[in-house]
UniProtKB/TrEMBL annotation:
GO terms for biological process: proteolysis. It is found in: Membrane. The chain crosses the membrane at residues 20-37, 43-60, 124-149, 155-176. This is Peptidase M50 domain-containing protein. The lineage of its organism: Bacteria, Pseudomonadati, Pseudomonadota, Gammaproteobacteria, Pseudomonadales. Keywords: Membrane, Transmembrane, Transmembrane helix. Its main location: membrane. It is a multi-pass membrane protein.
Length: 373
């Protein structure tokens, strides 16, 4: 057997063990609840309660990652727990119900940007470790409570302890299923030595963008690495280049990128699964550019925007409505929509977004009044 075969076999074995650990936690919790709670709804009540405690344990787990990121002064952008997705804002939160793919329906994650003032290894090892560590701490505390409390409250505490301990231990196993486990990530960051590794290009660009660096000032080499890598990297790089042209007011060059996007999508057609929201967002930005260049709102009317676009870019729709109103000669309505776009962008954790929207707002305000023959 060659090295890759051994690694695949080892990963398969660790994945099986990880699943057994996680399932055993749920099964033991259900048994504890089933034997303690007397009800005619058993065993279904015990299974339901064990599943509910599992979701709470997942909240604990992702909460650990979140606390780890904030402890390192890392900006957190998104948090997901099963079907609940949370968008972190500078002031407040946005929450929506958005079920994941079936293969990862009960999973969760925390998306954060690196702190540019600290080495990557230090901060990311802490973020990765805090998730399972909080599970183990909560599991230990729940175990102590469960052993000291009699009856149903003690059984619930014991069941919660078992689920948390299983989740903590299971996630520390270095396995790779849909996504790498915390154990796999921890091992990777432990071996990390070079913050300028090519595969970290997207992480570096995200950190710079969140810190407020305009798209035109992002490192060209990292953008090129992103463009040449797997999806969604090429689409993200395309979006950065398009945004740079928008900030500069180079609308002819921005409109010319429509053909480039079509060519990119055709060349990467086999890699577009799950990319529909990002593609729709880019097409919406291109429609805005064409409408502004041509002084015609028709491209905006012909480019629908879904709720997914409104979730990821809540400033785009009001900005497009502002352009449409200004082209129709209604400056007051246009300014109202511009204020909505600016408010949404300025509340984003991505500081460069507020700067970009401010530039675009000034360009829209500077448009000449329409002439009607």
């Amino acid at each position: 057997m060659d090295g890759n075969t051994w690694l695949k076999a080892l990963n398969t074995l660790l994945t099986i063990v990880q699943r057994l650990v996680l399932l055993s936690g749920w099964f033991i919790a259900a048994l504890v609840l089933g034997f303690t709670i007397k009800s005619g709804l058993q065993p279904f009540l015990a299974m339901f309660l064990a599943s509910l405690l599992g979701v709470v344990a997942l909240v604990v787990h992702e909460g650990g990652h979140y606390l780890g990121a904030r402890g390192c002064a890392m900006p957190v952008l998104h948090v997901r727990v099963a079907a609940v997705e949370i968008q972190v804002l500078r002031r407040g939160w946005r929450v929506r119900w958005a079920p994941q793919l079936k293969r990862n329906r009960l999973g969760g994650y925390v998306i954060a940007a690196s702190n540019l003032q600290r080495p990557l290894q230090q901060q990311w090892m802490l973020v990765v470790l805090c998730g399972p560590l909080l599970n183990l701490l909560v599991g230990g505390a729940s175990l102590a409570l469960g052993l000291s409390w009699p009856g149903v409250p003690g059984a619930i505490a014991l069941a919660f302890a078992v689920i948390n301990l299983a989740m903590g231990v299971g996630n520390l196993m270095p396995a790779w299923r849909v996504l790498p486990s915390d154990g796999m990530l921890l091992l990777g960051w432990y071996r990390h030595r070079d913050d300028q590794r090519p595969e970290l290009a997207q992480a570096r660009l995200l950190a710079l963008t969140v810190a407020g660096v305009p798209s035109a000032q992002l490192p060209v080499d990292d953008l090129q690495r992103l463009a040449e890598g797997p999806m969604p990297g090429p689409l993200v790089a395309f979006g950065c280049r398009l945004n740079a042209l928008q900030d500069q007011g180079d609308w002819p060059a921005a409109v010319q990128m429509e053909q480039e996007l079509d060519q990119l999508l055709a060349a990467r057609s086999a890699q577009l699964n799950g990319m529909s929201g990002l593609i729709e967002l880019l097409r919406g930005e291109l429609a805005f550019c064409r409408a502004l260049l041509q002084r015609d709102a028709a491209p905006l009317n012909n480019t629908p925007m879904s709720a997914e676009v409104d979730w990821n870019a809540p400033w785009l729709r009001p900005r497009c409505l502002a352009l449409q109103a200004i082209l129709e000669g209604d400056r007051q309505r246009g300014e109202h929509h511009l204020q909505q776009a600016l408010q949404a962008a300025n509340n984003s954790v991505v500081l460069s977004q507020g700067k970009s929207e401010a530039l675009l707002a000034e360009q829209l305000r500077a448009l000449p009044a329409p002439t009607h023959l």
